[in-house]
Amino acid sequence: MFEKKSVEDIEVKGKKVLMRVDFNVPLEAGQVRDDSRIRAAIPTIEMLLSGGARLALASHLGRPKGQYAEDLVMDPVAERLSVLLGKKVSKLNSSAGREVKTAVEQMSEGDLLMLENLRFEKGEEENDSAYARELAEPFDLFVNDAFGTAHRAHASTAGVAAYIPAVAGLLMKKEIEELSNCLENPQRPMSAILGGAKVSDKINVIKRFLTLADNLLVGGGMANTFLAAKGHKMGASFYEKDLLEEAAELIKEADESRCRLMLPVDLAVTKELKPGSYSEVMAPSDIDGEWKAVDIGPETAALYSGQLEQSEMIVWNGPLGVFEVPPFDNGTEIVAEAVASSGAYSVIGGGDLVAALEGLGMSGEISFISTGGGATLEFWEGKELPGIKALQDK
Ligand code: ADP
Ligand code: MG
Question: What does the pLDDT read at residue 2?
C-alpha cells in the first residue's frame, strides 16, 4: 500500500521545489542516447510547473566520484529536457551554494532550472549532513521522483529530507504501487521468472519469491549455478563456484515450499560466444569440456511458456540468456512472447532485461516496466529503501 505523501497531496503554488530525478542517462558523443528516463519524469515536472511551483531538478550522471568531470556535466540532459518540454531549462554550474540560492530567488512561478551533477560533490554519496543542508537551503519542499536511486542513502535521496518536507513524485508513487501490488496482492497462479548473471546478486529475491510465488522459473547464468549445484559439470559455462552450497540450500528450501522451482532441461551451448556462432542444444548432464551454456533451450522455453500461459500474475527480472549476442536472445524472446500472450498482469525490472525486451520490440507487451534495477530488486526483497523511508507519511 502507498502510505507516503505525494505531490498530489500538497499545494505547490509559489513554492520553491527541489526535485530529485533519475536522469542518469546513457550518453554518446556528448548527446543523450536514450531519453526514456527523462521522459519518465515529465508528468511530475509538468504537474509541478502548471501548479505554479518554482522548480529545480537535481540528478546524478555517471560515476564522477565526488569530482568535477567535464564529460559528465548535465548540459546535454538539460538541452534534451528543454526540447521535450518545449520550454527553457536554465542549467546551473553547481548543485548547492550561492549560485543556486541566487538563481532560485530570481525564479518566477512555473520556471524550471537544472542543477549540476550531484555526484561532483563528495558529500552526495557520503550523505554528508552539511551538504544535504546546503542542498535543501534555497527550497521549501523536496520531491523525490528518482525511484532508481531510492535504494541509496545519499544526500539528495535521504539526507535532504531532514531539512525540508519530502514527498513522492508521480513516478515514485507509481513504482511503489505497482511493485508492492505484486507482493501484497499476488494473483494466482503467480509465476516469477529470474535470470541474469548471478545467484549472488539475487539470493534474497529468490527467497522472497520462493515463499510468495507458485512457480519460479530460472534461466541465465544463474541457472548454470543451480545446475552445477545439482552435480552437473557445466563445461566452460559461467557459474558461481563459491555459491554452490547456497544454491543447493535454495533448492532444498524450494522443495519444502509451496513454490515449484523450475530449472532448464536443455540449454543452447556454444564454444565461442560470437554473434551467429555454431551452437548446439544439450541436456545439462551432457555439457562438458569447452561447451558454454548461454541460453535456455527450446524444450525449456516451451515448458516455461506453458507454465506462463496459465499464470495470472508474472514478475520477471533478468534475461534468460546472453541476449547481447544473437541468437542467444531466443529464449528471452520466446518467454517474452508467452508473457504477452498469457494475458497475465506482468511486471518486469532490471536494467538488462528491460534493454533486452526493448531490443526485441517486446516491451509494449508488459503491464508495468520498473525504472529501477537495484532498487526494484531491493524493494522485492522486502527491504525498506532509504529514499522511500525519508518521505513524509500520509
Ligand atoms: P538485470 O540487469 O536484468 O537484473 P543481470 O544484470 O543480473 O540482469 O544480468 C544480465 C547479464 O546476464 C547479461 O549481460 C547477460 O549476458 C548475462 N547472462 C545471461 N545468461 C547468461 C549465461 N548463460 N552465461 C553468462 N551470462 C549470462
Ligand atoms: Mg544488470
Answer: 77
